[in-house]
Amino acid sequence: MLSVVFPAGCRICERLLSEANRIPICVDCISSFRPITGTVCDKCGRAVEGAARSDAKTFVCPNCVNDEWGGYAFDRVRSWAIYEGALVRAILLLKFENIDPLGKLVAKWLAEVAAAGGGAFQADVVVPMPLHRQRERERGYDQAALIAKPLAKRLGLPYKSVLLTRIRRRPDTFAEL
After folding, report:
1. Three-state secondary structure along the chain?
2. CA 3 to CA 102: how far, in whole Å?
3. I need a surface site. Which of 8, 17, 86, 175 has the fewest CB within 10 A?
4. Quick one: pLDDT at residue 153?
5. Residues whose CB is less than 8 angstroms from the CB of residue 162 and which lie 6 or more positions away in sequence, other chains included
6. What is the pLDDT of residues 136-151, one digit of tens each?
7. How far, in Å, are 56, 57, 62 from residue 53 at the CA level?
8. Distance (Å, rounded) from C-alpha 105 to C-alpha 146?
9. For 21-79, what is each residue's pLDDT tens digit?
């Protein structure tokens, strides 16, 4: 009700929000997010322009075939959209400002990707990559959980945040990386 009487600005483009919504991003900015379409590498999840799937069961991009990315320690990854423009700002809002409804929206999009992937994304459990304890204390929340909890609910899977832990201390400087 308050947002109708005193409209706020979009947290990305700063235009006044014309609709009452729990997500502080205007419809124009949300509609500018570009979902990944077309042929996607079954290993790294990147869109591969000009490539077409053959009858092969999986498609792997030339970078993954040639191991140009240095190899991955996972079997498959997939994103919902291209990380650019307004989406970058939206992810930063989610990361630093604890906007739970935005996490639920991202979870909805990821659930759509999982559903479209058929059996490729079958899972038994949803486990977020844990934030370092010091960062979680500083922020007061774990942004991965803002997405993982509603994603688990949408997929009908258990959410288990304790299955992964960070065992290495966070480096104090980039020189230590």
Report:
1. CHHHHCCCECCCCCCECCCCCCCCCCHHHHHCCCECCCCECCCCCCECCCCCCCCCCCCCCHHHHCCCCCCCCCCCCCCCECCCCHHHHHHHHHHHHCCHHHHHHHHHHHHHHHHHCHHHHCCCCECCCCCCHHHHHHHCCCHHHHHHHHHHHHHCCCECHHHCCCCCCCCCCHHHC
2. 17
3. 175
4. 96
5. none
6. 899 999 999 999 999 9
7. 7, 9, 13
8. 10
9. 889 999 999 999 999 888 888 888 888 877 666 666 778 888 888 876 667 777 788 88
**Residue type at 95?**
K
**Residue that the structure tokens 């075939």 belong to:** 65
Six-digit token string for 70: 């240095």
